[in-house]
Structure formats: C-alpha cells, structure tokens
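Thread: quick sanity check before group meeting

JM: Hey all, I'm pulling together slides for Thursday and realized we never actually wrote out the predicted structure for the chain we discussed last week. Dropping the sequence here so it's in one place. If anyone has concerns about the input, flag it before I start.
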Amino acid sequence: MAEKKKQHYVPRFYLKRFATCDKKFNLYNIERKSVIADGNSVPYKDQFYEDYFYGEDKVWENKLDDLESKWDKSFSNVIEERYSDIDIENLKEFAVFQYGRTLFQLKQQVDSSAKIVYEMLKMVLANQGNDDSLSLNVAQQLSEKKAEEMTSPAKLLDIFEKIVIEISDLEFKHISFKTKNKLISSDNPIVVINPFLKTNIGFGIIGLVILFPISPEDVCILYDSKIYDKISKISNTCKNDYIVKMLNSLIFVNAYSMLYSKDLFPKQLFSDSDYSLWKENCKSSNVSSFGTNKEGVVAVHRGSIKYDKLPYFFSISPSFNAIAPDYRTPVPRKYDFGYEKKIKEEYTVIPSVLARSKDDIIDDQYIKNYTFNHERYYFLIMKYWGK
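JM (edit): ok, ran it. Output follows.
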C-alpha cells in the first residue's frame, strides 16, 4: 500500500474518541435507516477516507498530520478540564478546517459552482437562440465537469485556512454530560448555525454559533457572547438527558449520510421530522437565479441548515431578541464603516423610498414601524460594536 494513500476527511484522532476499547464503533446509514454491518461495530480507522482525497502530492495530508497532532492534545486537555487559551485556539482552528474538509462541503461547493456556470450558460444560449433541450443538456454536463475541475478538497482547505482568523473573537464553552444518553457524531461533525439571523451563516457575521461533540460525553461551543448571554453562565457539567437528545437531533440533521456512536443505536433513533429536515438540508442549494432566461441574475448566498429545537442556553439576549427577525440585518461582528452606512440608510433613506410606493400593504403605519425598528437596530449594533 502506498504511503498515506488513505486520506481521511474525518480524522482518526477524532473518530477514536467515539470508539470502544477494541477500536470500533457503531455506524448508521441515515438514508437506509439502518445500522451498518448487521448491527456489528466496525473499526473506526477504516471509515471516512478516500484514496488520495487531498492529492497524490501529499502536501495537505502532511500539513494535516502536524495539525491533527496538536488538535488531538488539545481535545484531551479540554476533556480533562485542564485546557489553556492555546487549546481553545487549536479547537477553533480544528472547527474551521474540519468544516471545510468533508465530502458534504465538497459536494456543496461542486454543486454551487456547477449551478452558477449553468445559469450563466443558459443566458448565453437564450440570447443566441440556442436554448433547446439538447443544448441545455450539454450545457449542464459541461457545467458539472467544469465545477469538478475547479473544486478539490485541497483547494477548499486553502480557502478555509484563511477563514480561521474570522472566528478568533468567539467565546468558548465546554460542557461535560453526565447522562444516560450519549452524544453521537457524523461524517459532517461541525454544526454551524445562526439562531439570531436564522438563514444567514457567515463565519464573520453577528450571531454565529459553532458546536461539535469531541467525545460521547463532551461538546464544545464557539459563540457570539453578545447575542447569547446565557451560555457562559451555565454549568460546565450537565445531567439533562433532554439536552443531549436535542444536540443529537441537531447533529443528525447536519450529517451528510452517516452517524457513529460508541453505544448501540436504538431502534427508534430519530423522529420523522428529523428525517424530513435532514433531507431538506441535503437538497438545499445556496445559489438562486432571478429574472428572464436572457437577462437573469445569479445570486450566491450563505447556506444554512434547518433544525427543530435548541437547548435553552441558545436563547437570544433580551435587547437583541426585542428586534423582530425581519429587521435583523446581517452585519459583521467587527466594526465595518460600509455596514454602518448600510444599516443607517435603512432608517434614514429607505423610508422615503417606501413613502413613494404606498399601497394597501405599505402605508404610513408600515413605514413608521419600519423606520422605528431599523433605527433601534442601528443603535443596538453601534453599541454591539462599541461605538
């Protein structure tokens, strides 16, 4: 066997923490709703890899070896409650890298690139009068081929390596569970959500939450402490089985196709609604097109996952929760003059535009509410930025 041929997209040091002393764990196929290997546990080392996934040059494979060595030590330090600021930085780094190196992320990026190229080709063909079904089919095939050529796990890691700095300001919380039920994990183990904005996820955006289990008893949370003020106040030890259930549900709907657990999977693992949400998340696209075939606009937006319930400590702080979701404009966590100008214009400029477009829906009361809420949000964000 060639050296370093088996390249894992979920690292072995992570997987081993969900395995028993015989180095095995239970594997569950979500689509089939069945446990792999007739219910028998499987060796964790043989899971979640592809031959030369990061390339035969082994550049990224070698870099990941060094990174995983320090991440492994920091995981142990966190679990043993003797971690330092350096360990926290290591876990932040792990979270971003791991988010960007999975099959799920690769598929999303390829699909997005293919759709962008296809929508552009559609417009070109329409303007040339060649938008028949045969031409569109060829365009789709070319788009998919081009997207696969443009995207690779190594290129994704090059991108996500630069993103690590964006979450340096997030607070860290480790929770150890002393419960009957244990945490599971998946082939897409990093959960990135934004309960404050609901649909707008960006690593540098206000309201970000990143969570991931690091063992069947431990979860790590990186979060915007100005938005979620309860997380820092909760105990580092939790005995609530219901919270484990909610976290496992979140891990489930975020998965690509496989789950793994140190314990046996019960027959009734998750609800029908969990399966429905998982299917929606798998099919979701972050590319939209607007306009006509000849004159369209292709928009790329941040992806987000749909989920059911979150533990109580993810509740939004009162001052921000008072802002209705429709008025929560996505802004960076770090001050940005351009964004300040944008959210200021929402209550100083746009109301006058709305006043010229009055109808049955947009009336004086609507404009008054719009202005009041956006002005309140502006001053709240300025306080958030320390301005």
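AS: nice. The chain has twelve helices and 14 strands. The mean pLDDT is 91.
JM: adding both to the slides.
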